[in-house]
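Re: duplicated header lines in exported structure tokens

Our pipeline writes sequence and tokens for each protein into one text file. With two proteins the header for the second block appears twice in some exports. Here is an export where it did not happen, for reference. First protein block:
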Amino acid sequence: MYFISCLIFIATIILGLWFGNSLPLFLDQTFPTILGLVIVPTMFFAISIHSFNSIKITIKAVKKSETNLLAQRVFHSCGNVGLLIGITVTLINFISIGYNWSDSPSAGYLSVAISTAIMSTFIGLVVKVLCLVGFYRVQGYEG
């Protein structure tokens, strides 16, 4: 059920981008940048903080819906690292925008830089939300 919820969450985001006519811009320019700057470093940091075996144990715990303290730690650290990396990439993009600002800014560069800055924080928040849901899934919290 957790994985189905994740897919529905991501599908809702894509649907919102599609209705806002932002999906082509997101897929062409922003998504590869965000994937390379937020998602991949978050995965590497998660593996370096814990271990690859811990990540596999976490995935098994989510699939089985079992209480697992190690999985809780993995989700907690992954969510925090993903959010912090997203915010860091946003700040880097804002610095880049400020550095390249001029009297006649290139509209193409500024639009890509601003969308990348906003989407990096957004992707960081998505990682945090998915990890928070996974954290509660392996916490054994019955509601």
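Second protein block, exported in the same file:
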Amino acid sequence: MEEKKYQFGTNLEFKKALSNKTYFATLFAEGSESLKELLLYCFNNNIVVNSCCCGHFDNYSYNHKIGYVNFDVTNNNDAVINSVINSIYYNPDVNFEFIKLFYDKKIHLLIKIINPFSDTDIYATILNDIKIQNGIIMKQEDIRIILEVLKEHNYYNFDIKIEKRTQCKNEPFLLMADYNYDQERKNVLMVFKSLSCEEIRQLPIILDNEIKQKKLTLFKE
């Protein structure tokens, strides 16, 4: 079959995964039954997933690779994304990151399982909350602000990343901006700033000021 020609780890269009849902869900789940069930549900309901990993031990670096799943915010409906966020927002074993890439203008939600030995099955929890549509309303004001800013603004040659870190209580958010200075998308980290929940309310002003300052520095050079 054509699917057997697929080389694991290379890019695959989402619609290609839909051509053989069970095969690709099993392949990408890497042995995790709960991740497989999450992927199958997403495939069957046209919920766009960009990438994933069940988490595993790396024999080369002798480090544990964190599990993650990356949802496409731009091409999924708000109820799905809200359900995922409501599911993970207070989970101490999860960090998550909103990413807006300049080259495609899409917003991505990258969920990172920072404690691979957690008793909670994160993938099963996310699946359950998506099924019961736990996201009709966005419950978190800070996340609503972040999504509004990323949806409404494009920043010249900058990739914007905003991470919520469960281990940082006073300044749980990390704002990062990478500048793409050539066609090969070689990135330079220009903004790296921790933010409190109160500062997130001023995110449009903070982001505009940080980007403008870095752009001026770049153009002077």
